[in-house]
Amino acid sequence: MNNRTTTESKWTQPIEWGVLLLMVAAAAALRYWHLEDIPPGFNSDEAVGAMGALKTLREGIQYSYEGQGGGGALGFYFAAASFYLFGPSIAAIRGVAAWAGVMSVFTNYWAVREIFRNQGLVRARWIAGLSTLGLTFSVWHIWASRVAFATIGVPLLMLPSVFFLWWGLNHPRQKWAFVASGIFLAAGMYIYLSGVFAPPLYAAFFISQWLLIFAAKKLKQTPNPPSAYLTSQFWNLFITAMVALLLLLPVAYVLLFNPSLEPGGTRVSQAIFTNPQINHGDPWGLLWRSFTGNFSAYGVSLLWLTGQVPRLSFMPPAIGALVFAGFLIALVQSLRGQAAYLFIWLWYGILLLPSILSPDSIPHNLRTIGATTPTYVFAAITVVSVADLLWRMARRGLAPRLGLRRTTWLARAAGLLIGLWLGWQFWQVNQPFLYDYFFVYPQTNDAQAAFHVYAVEMAKEINREPDPGANFILLRNTAAGETHPNFTTDFLTELAQPPAAHTWVEDDERTLPAALTAAAATHDVLRVVYWRTSKHTGADPKEAIPYYLEKYGYRDHKHGFKYFDIVTYQLQTPSPDFSANETLSPVKIDFGGQFKLTGFAFGDAGNVDAVTQPQARSFDLLWLRVRGQKTADHPENLKITALIYTEAGELVTRVDKPLLNNILQQPSSQWEVGAETDAYFLIPIPEGTPPGKYNLRVAVYGEDSQARLPVVSVVPEMPVSENAVILSDFTVLLSTKHAKLEHMTMAFPVGRELLPGLTLAGFETLPGTSVRSGQKVGASLLWQSSGDTPPAQDAEMSLAAKPVGGGTEWAISQPLPLVSKYYPSSQWETGKLMRGWLTTRIPPEMEPGRYQLDLRLTDAHVPETELARLPVGEFEITGWTRNFTAPQPQQPVGADFGGLATLLGVDADTAALSPGGTFNVTLHWRADAEFDRDYKAFVQIIGPEGQLFGQVDQTPGAGQFPTSGWLPGEYIADSYAVPLDPATPPGEYGLLIGLYYPDTGQRLPVSGGNCGPDACLLPGITVK
Questions:
Q1: Dist CA 790 CA 830 (whole Å)
Q2: Strands across the sheet containing 776-785
Q3: In degrees rounded to 5, what are phi and psi of residue 658?
Q4: What's the per-residue H, E or C state across 681-708?
Q5: DSSP class of 480
Q6: 3-class DSSP state for residue 804?
Q7: Are 952 and 939 in contact (CB under 8 A)?
Q8: What is the pLDDT confidence band of residue 262, given thresholds at 50, 70 and 90?
Q9: Which residues of 317-343 are buried (b: 16+ CB within 10 A; e: fewer)?
Q10: What angle do CA 526, 529, 534 make, to 5 degrees?
Q11: How confident is the model at residue 8 (pLDDT cuts 50, 70, 90)?
């Protein structure tokens, strides 16, 4: 750009001011338009400032505020002033940020103009104007100006400090400029942590300039200015430093005598790259990635030299290329001793350090906001340098022929056209970014989440609450990290007078009862908020809150919203103490050596007056709390299940819970051995469950394998059934509510009155259309007392089956009470639905074929008297051809398996095996008694030292001959093909054979035939 020292036209300054004011007006429009709605919602960090501003108005200025983090107290004072003038609102506090952004655009021009003044006023104006134009339309700067974060205060205060500093450097006798620079320099350190990097910038600049001046003189170059500021204006710089230090004495005092008041220290320790939670064990690698990532994000990347475009942040590629070129030009000019370029170059690098050193996000566009000015100055330097080059070429090529005057006017016209073209190009490349920010981004899920729209909507819902007795429980998830209250909701509810009650509650099990007790002290309606959109989604995964609230109240209803669900609980006792009645009965129950149950407590969750009693009502809840400890490492995560059984062994219901620890909510495989945890259960007693005696059981199983851990040890009064410990008996009471048929799912609706006043509503479950001989089958029935009085007779029920083509009828179950021996049908309340269970086992001796299934009702007191019969339908019994001829096995064994079966012998492949081959063997069994369950057989190839080299586990006959279908005296040929490990060395091996129950892993005892205690080991396998 032409640097001729000519007398300025009288229009120069009006044009300069006019252009600047146009840019400021554009900046204001872009920063204030729909300010309350874009971005959507109101971020919690913004609300921290809003709450601090309210506190300032009420209590006076503070040094630090709750939730302050990396922001300084000065931002709260600005917000308080806005609230005082305009009233508290989102627009009022964001308006402060927008004002700061507009003022930054204005002061940017004068600061850059003053920095480059010694390069010539024309050049200074062009660089200042172009960089300010870039800042005006920069989405980076616009974004920071439209959110109430203190970070925008860094350019707001730093730019005046820079302006006054360079004004003083260019006018050394005006000492007031250095005083003003020091005031703004100190103020910047009270606004945001990034402001702390301004003093190092000043120090680095003056020291570097002194060194470069020294080097330039040695190299006989002409630096600008010719002398170092550090020597020529030392006392002026000393004034700036002393003023800043004087104003920073409060910070020094706090750091020395009360460092806990300084929130910035905590924030630095959290975000610094040395924090293991951020660097994951690679601090220096992360620092390098952060260094290159931050520079690349703002245009400075070596990728440009390879023809690639780096990943830019809020910046179109064309601008990024200009920035990179300007960065290189500034570097070259800096090394030549050009102070203005050196200052901009250092400004860029040092003001990126807050993001580089705190790499939780690369880049962090708020922490780098102080580098906006040098970034766009680099782009302006490139444009001006190209214009200078063109002007010099024009002077050499055109001036000798056209004359200097004509060449100058031609250059001005060309410059105007080029400027208009560049402006249009600038708008073209920047317009998509602006459109995306204002019209696309606000509608995205990212924007909705980042600016906590869910918290704004939550505040609206709280402010609409009409019930003064209601309190909203706003959950915080400890596994999400920081669990501070969401200040957005706090601020917006604070604006409602009087504010509705809401309480922030962490799902920390240690503090949860006390927090709920405090929340319910003066409220009898608790509305628990479960977030759908928040980092606290998934709070209370152990469901401890419903566990507590159901014990002293009941769940009334649930309302679903876009961003959250609200579950309302009505408390039934005033001011409950949720920590009461939580004393656990100590036990020592070992599950597979991996987990130990150490305590439990349970009671009635439907009656606050009987909360500790071993009872529950039908159609209500039983509460259970168990505590356990990890006793050994295990590869898969464990789950715990609570089961309710009838006295006859019918499963009524079950509830499964993953074993999670507190705070981190990790599954059990990730715990340290010895870690303890609690599990909280609300076990629903199904509708229609009859009154009577039931038992409560607990089992632990693998999440992936679904296999229960065996119970290793248990006290005698706690029997074990199928690896589930029976913790206690309890009583189910008659429901005070009527079960409704529409709530029931039935496999076979009936709706028929079988006896006067007795209606069979239907079968919830049926055995199925095809069952196997020996298989256990069950049916669940729903009965209803349908008359004005209960049935006159006590009836019992049973199942009978008869071949479809005719033949002998089989009584396949014994007569049982319709629902419970404790509640005979003559005592039923009219209109009540009752559930009954009928479980039996298809006799193995029943021949395969189709049968008609009937439900029989008989007199409980005269069993031979049939009262009613109902055809249920046809079903098929499947089986296999029975063999009662004894085999002649090649290798006799004669081992007895628990009195249920005998392994008569085996037929084995006698040829020597090769590694990787298959060993074929047939086991010959004789059934000695009926099995009540299905066992699996295992066949293993065992080395001389007990090593396992091959194994097959299967239901006998590859699933065709399950043990529950074996008939006493029947012979079963059971074949296996056992693959041999390819790494098996040559030698002699044995064959290990046994039977086990797959649900528990328990083997049948073995005796005789030189076998025992729970398997047979047969020699005779040779591997070549």
A1: 6
A2: 748-755, 758-765, 776-785, 833-841
A3: -70, 145
A4: EEEECCCCCCCEEEEEEEEEEECCCCCE
A5: G
A6: coil
A7: yes
A8: low
A9: eebbbbbbbbbebbeebbbbbbbbbbb
A10: 160
A11: low
Provide the pLDDT for residue 415: 67
User: Is residue 5 very low, low, confident or very high in pLDDT (cuts 50, 70, 90)?
Assistant: very low
Q: Report the distance separating Cα 89 and Cα 83, nearest Å.
A: 7
Q: Residue 798 pairs with which residues in a beta bridge?
A: 856
Measured between alpha carbons, how far is 201 from 229 in angstroms, rounded to an integer?
A: 14
Q: Which of 377, 367, 386 is nearest to 313 (CA)?
A: 367
In the predicted model, is pLDDT for residue 167 greater than 80?
Answer: yes
Which of residues 807 and 399 earns the better pLDDT score?
807
> What tokens appear for 663 in the block?
């705070």
CB contact set of 881 (below 8 Å; sequence gap of 6+) = none
Nearest-angstrom CA–CA distance, 234 and 163: 18
Chain centroid to CA 383? 48
The dihedral region occupied by 654, where left means phi > 0, alpha psi between -120 and 50, and beta the remainder, is beta
Residue 472, classed as helix, strand or coil, is strand
pTM of the model: 0.80
Helix or strand holding residue 290 (H, E) = helix 283-297
Is the distance from CB of 468 to CB of 440 less than 8 angstroms? Answer: no
What is the distance between the alpha carbons of residues 861 and 859, in angstroms, rounded to a whole number? Answer: 5
E-state strands within 804-917 = 810-811, 816-817, 833-841, 849-859, 866-878, 891-897, 901-908
CB atoms within 10 A of CB 652: 19
CB 48 within 8 A of CB 71: yes
Element containing residue 416 per DSSP (H, E): helix 404-435
Residue 337 CA to residue 120 CA, distance in Å, equals 16
Average pLDDT (464-475) is 94
Token pair for 816: 């049982």
Q: Are 992 and 1021 in contact (CB under 8 A)?
A: no
Vertex 941, ends 885 and 929: CA angle to 5°?
35
Residue 118 has pLDDT above 80, yes or no: yes
Q: How many CB atoms lie within 10 A of CB 786?
A: 19
What are 942's two structure tokens?
Answer: 């065992």
- In order, the DSSP letters of 95-131 are HHHHHHHHHHHHHHHHHHHHHTGGG-HHHHHHHHHHH
Pairing of strands 502-506, 470-476: parallel
The two tokens of residue 537 are 């989604």
pLDDT per residue as tens digits for the range 956-992: 999 899 999 999 999 999 999 999 999 999 999 999 9
Bridging pattern class, strands 564-571 and 553-560: antiparallel
The pLDDT tens digits of the residues spanning 836-883 come to: 999 888 899 888 999 999 999 999 999 889 999 999 989 899 988 899
Tell me, rounded to whole angstroms, the distance of Cα 822 from its chain centroid: 48
Cis status of the peptide bond prior to 658, with omega within 30 of 0: no
Average pLDDT, the chain: 90
Please determine, for residue 361, whether its predicted confidence score (pLDDT) is greater than 90: no
**Who's near 745: CB < 8 A, 6+ residues apart?**
764
Report d(CA 894, CA 558) in Å as an integer.
65
Angle subtended by helix axes 372-397 and 121-137, to nearest 10: 130
Cα dihedral sign for 1012, 1014, 1016, 1017?
negative
3-state secondary structure of 809: coil
> Does residue 780 contact residue 763 with C-beta atoms inside 8 Å?
yes
Cis, peptide link before residue 871, omega less than 30° from 0: no
Which tokens belong to 13?
């300054």
Tokens standing for residue 160? 């005046």
Helix ranges restricted to H, 172-222:
175-188, 198-218
User: Who's near 413: CB < 8 A, 6+ residues apart?
Assistant: none
What tokens appear for 891 in the block?
């290798």
Q: Calculate the alpha carbon distances from 968 to 75, 808, 843, 923, 926 in Å.
A: 89, 21, 12, 17, 8
Name the token pair of 870: 């109902």
Tell me if 760 sits within 8 A of 857, measured CB to CB: no
The reported pLDDT for the residue numbered 507 is 95
